[in-house]
Design a protein that fits this description.
The protein contains 6 helices and 4 strands, in the order H-H-H-H-H-E-E-E-E-H. Helix 3 crosses helix 4. It holds the Pfam family DDE_Tnp_1.
């Protein structure tokens, strides 16, 4: 837990950065080991991977469409290709799991959480295709997110379902996935 003193504010300040979503040197040092190395053979990688990560964080924090990515980042097609490749490979899940376990140990806790809080949220969707259903209780047509946090508030797991799944049924899927990730 960070106490927002003057020293802490300076330490976590994002002033002087191009965008507030850009990674600091300390954040990049934590993320960099997870970035897959360039493939062998072919052309050498010329894309700055830190800029790719910064572009992904910009999209996530701004909530904008891919095509609205500012020109100072690598091309949209490059950023999107890396994003989908890393998502499909489970890289973001691995990053989250390792970082959460490390933070828990820093706080003097066991690496694997022993307790958590699960919640769900139904959200409307406008896009066609993909998961969709009708949550009769909340009168929402769309998707349902099941989110689990530990007692420190760290994100443990997130699962997206069609909105028509009952919370008790979604919880079974979420808990099974957590058991696999945190033995």
């Amino acid at each position: 837990m960070v106490t927002w003193t003057g020293i802490a504010r300076r330490e976590h300040s994002r002033e002087g950065m191009r965008y507030p979503s850009d990674t600091t040197d300390e954040e990049w040092a934590l993320i960099m080991p997870f970035i897959p190395p360039a493939k062998r053979g072919g052309r050498p990688r010329t894309t700055d991977m830190r800029e790719v990560v910064n572009a992904m964080l910009y999209i996530a924090s701004a909530g904008c469409a891919w095509r609205l990515l500012p020109k100072c980042f690598p091309p949209v097609s490059t950023v999107r290709r890396y994003f989908y490749a890393w998502r499909d490979a489970g890289l973001f899940e691995v990053m989250n799991t390792v970082l959460v376990m490390s933070l828990r140990e820093i706080e003097g806790r066991e690496a694997s959480p022993s307790a958590g809080v699960i919640d769900s949220q139904s959200v409307k969707t406008t896009e066609s295709g993909g998961l969709s259903g009708y949550d009769a209780g909340k009168k929402v047509k769309g998707r349902k997110r099941h989110i689990v946090t530990d007692t420190c508030g760290f994100l443990i797991f997130l699962l997206v379902h069609a909105a028509d799944i009952q919370d008790r049924d979604g919880a079974v899927d979420v808990l099974a996935a957590i058991r696999r990730r945190f033995p």
